[in-house]
Every structure is written in structure tokens, then in C-alpha cells.
Amino acid sequence: MISLSVKIRFFGSLCDLTKGRHLFEFVPGVNQTIKDCIERLGVPHTEVSFITLNGSFVDFSRVVCDGETYFVYPESDLPIEDVYLVSPRFVGEPRFVLDIHLGKLAKLLRIFGIYAEYGILDDDEIVARGVSMGYVILTKDRKLLMRKEIKYGYVVRSDDPYEQFDEVYRKYNLGKWASPFSRCLVCNGEILEVDKRVVEGRVPIRVFELNERFGVCSSCGKIYWPGTHYEHMEAFVSRYLPRRVLDPF
Ligand SMILES: [Zn+2]
Q1: How far is the centre of ligand 1, averaged over its atoms, from the C-alpha of 97 (Å)?
Q2: What is the pLDDT of residues 174-229, one digit of tens each?
Q3: For the chain, which has fewer Cβ within 10 Å, the N-terminal or C-terminal residue?
Q4: Cα of 134 to ligand 1 centre, how many Å?
Q5: Among 23-27, 47-51, 241-245, which stretch is predicted with the lowest mean pLDDT?
Q6: Domains and CATH numbers, the chain
Q7: How far is CA 58 from CA 64, 67, 70, 102, 176, in A?
Q8: What spacing in Å lies between the alpha carbon of 224 and ligand 1's midpoint?
Q9: How far is the CA of 232 from the centre of ligand 1 (A)?
Q10: Phi, psi of 144 (to 5 degrees)
């Protein structure tokens, strides 16, 4: 008896999600789509950019047939026309909503002034925010990104917040959108520079005397100034934006 099987070959960063394995061969279910097969192997649809079969592009709805071999690719710089992409490219300034396990990453993004919504406990709510607002969902939970309504999402690979930041920075070209120290680290609100007199009596006297520039979060009211902690962050920011003249707010 001839066994019925389909082969799927993953490329590039998709193999991060398959423990480094490139090629899978398995017996599909009845009327199973290529999307189902790919997600069954642990790769959410949001990670897949395009799929080919015998050199032609196919979309997620393609029902797989015996003997076929699919090539599955992540987002890349290849000049593929949008019409052939199974997941849309993110264009424009990215805004993120992060799952509850990525608090340090959220803070690092906010240091760069990148919109990073964080603190929602409920997965359904995270998905609803992402979908309704067009935000990119960042998570380590790949099952979360398998929900079909999600358009933009990314499975953060590393467990280290700085490496996670590096992944997201590169993938979404954040250097183009960064505005360091313009966003509140606590609540994600925008920091606005204020006249020094506004913060008099609201910060320690020594801080008031030693600093000329102050900013206030437009959302939670937290006061910011270029103190020691700021200098530490400045070193981190300069690693990514070495030629940028950093303004404190
Ligand atoms: Zn705030």
C-alpha cells in the first residue's frame, strides 16, 4: 500500500519555531489546508510570509494533496509582490501590545519612545486590542498567534529581554521610529517637557536644584529628569542610535 504523505520545508527564521528542523513529512487529515498543516507543526500563520508548491505561490486555503512538497518562507527582503503574500507586511510606524510575560521588553521599547501597551492579563483582550487597533501582538505564546483573526504578530524567540528587544528592533526597523525618552516607562504615555517651575515642590529639592530640564507624563503625571538612571539608559540607547543626538524628552 502506498502511504499518503505531504512534505513541508521551512526556511530561515521559521526553523526557530521547529527546534531547528527544516523538513517534515506527514500524513494530512481529510481536506486539510496548508495553513492547518503549518500550524499543526507549531508555526503560527502570522510568521509565514509566502508559500510555494512546484515553484508557484499558493495561499493558506490550499487543500494539501498526496505527494506534494510545500516550501514555507518567513518575511524577507525578497521583492515578492503583495498579492502573493499569505500574511501582510507591516507598513508604517508599528505599535505593539505585549503579553503579560514581556514586561521588561515593554519597558525597553518605551525607552526608545516606541508605543508598547502592556499590562493586559486576559489573552482575549490582548487579541481584541491588537486586531481592532492594528497593533502588532508580541508574545512567546505561539498558540495565541494561531487565532485566525490576528493579522500582525510575532513570536519573541529569546528569553532574555535585551535579545528580545534586538529581535523586535530589527524586524520592525525601529531605528526609523525611535524617539528616545519621549514615553513614560510606567504607563506608556507621552512625556512632555515642562517649565522647571511646574515641578517645584513635586521633586526632591536637590533634584530641583541640580536639573534645568524636566518632563511630565501626559497620562499619569510622573516627573522625569536626566538623572543617573537616565545616563544608564542613554548608554543602551546609543548602542542602537550612535549618531543620534539624544534629547532628554
Ligand atoms: Zn505615565
Answers
A1: 16
A2: 999 999 999 999 999 999 999 999 999 999 999 999 999 999 999 999 999 987 66
A3: N
A4: 22
A5: 241-245
A6: 6-84 (3.10.20.30), 96-176 (3.40.50), 191-240 (no CATH)
A7: 11, 16, 9, 34, 33
A8: 10
A9: 20
A10: -60, -40
Cα of 74 to ligand 1 centre, how many Å? 36
Distance 239 CA to ligand 1 centre (A): 25
* pLDDT attached to residue 113: 96
- Ligand 1 center–CA 190 separation, angstroms: 7
Classified as helix, coil or strand, 119 is coil
pTM of the entire predicted model: 0.94
172: nearest Cα among 125, 116, 127: 116
Distance 145 CA to ligand 1 centre (A): 29
How many angstroms does the Cα of residue 195 sit away from the middle of ligand 1?
Answer: 18
What would the pLDDT profile of 76-105 be if each residue is shown by its tens digit? 989 999 999 999 999 999 999 999 999 999
Local confidence band at 247 (pLDDT 50, 70, 90 cut-offs): confident
**Residue 118 CA to its chain's centroid (Å):** 12
Determine how β-strand 223-224 pairs with β-strand 214-217: antiparallel
Q: 183: CA distance to ligand 1 center in Å? A: 8
Kindly state the helix (H) or strand (E) to which residue 149 belongs, with its residue range. none
For the record, the C-alpha cell of 196 comes out as 522647571
C-alpha cell at position 170: 530589527
Provide the grid cell at 11.
Answer: 526556511
Of 30, 25, 34, 26, nearest to 64 by C-alpha is 34
